[in-house]
Design brief:
By secondary structure, the chain is mainly α. It folds into two domains: 104 residues, Winged helix-like DNA-binding domain superfamily/Winged helix DNA-binding domain (Arc Repressor Mutant, subunit A); 86 residues, no CATH class. Helix content is 52%, strand content 11%. A hairpin with a 4-residue loop joins strand 4 and strand 5. It is globular and about 60 Å long. It binds iron/sulfur cluster. Iron/sulfur cluster binds next to loops.
Length: 215
């Protein structure tokens, strides 16, 4: 039982990473259900409140795309939120026949609570060293972008798809550059949901991505 034992008797690391993420996903789902039930909301209702609080009034279709769920699911949850007095519908000035879902004052108060849902993971992430967090951020960005390209998750406002992102243009510990704020950045600074994000065209995104993954 010397060197190489675990190479011969382990499942591939990729399979174990997928299993670990699945376990985290289950833990998150469980936590979401527990907190939602405590708040008297379904998880989708909680997600809608958080999305409206974060990005303002949206149509049902916009919410469905953002949350990665079907339009009927959003419609049912939005109706329940309206019945609870947490959301209201108003005409959409962009499309005369569509309506926007907005938060009421009670909805805003409840949303402040639901936005903290992912925070329970923060304690676990604190267990990682700064170097481990840096690698983790870059790995997650790569996985999320791969899932986005495959159409398996909604489009995310990430640096790697942004017109302002310039990967590996500097020497040293801050190799990337954000042209929007004109400042260098490292992998640990990569954003997943940036308000200033502007989606780059497909060809530019592909070139940026290649530059980002080339080391
Ligand atoms: S604007 Fe935001 S998403 Fe775009 S490169 Fe800068 S930090 Fe990243």
């Amino acid at each position: 039982m010397g060197r190489g034992f675990f190479d011969q008797h382990s499942t591939p690391a990729a399979a174990r990473i997928a299993t670990a993420l699945h376990k985290l996903g289950l833990a998150m789902k469980h936590q979401t259900w527990v907190q939602a039930a405590e708040d008297g909301l379904s998880p989708t209702q909680g997600q809608i409140l958080a999305a409206l609080a974060g990005d303002g009034p949206q149509t049902g279709s916009e919410l469905a795309a953002r949350l990665g769920v079907s339009l009927p699911t959003v419609s049912d949850s939005a109706r329940a939120l309206v019945d609870k007095g947490l959301a209201a519908k108003q005409p959409d000035p962009r499309h005369p026949r569509a309506s926007l879902i907005t938060l009421t004052a009670d909805g805003k108060a409840r949303a402040a609570k639901t936005r903290a849902w992912p925070e329970f993971l923060a304690g676990a992430v604190d267990a990682l060293s700064p170097a481990e967090q840096e690698v983790f951020v870059a790995g997650l960005v790569k996985m999320i972008r791969t899932l986005q390209v495959a159409g398996l998750i909604p489009v995310q406002a990430m640096c790697v798809t942004c017109v302002h992102f310039q990967p590996r243009v500097h020497d040293g510990p801050l190799p990337h550059h954000c042209a929007f704020v004109d400042a260098p950045m490292a992998d640990r600074h990569l954003r997943l949901d940036c308000d200033e994000h502007v989606e780059a065209e497909a060809a530019a995104q592909a070139a940026t991505w290649q530059q980002f993954v080339d080391r």
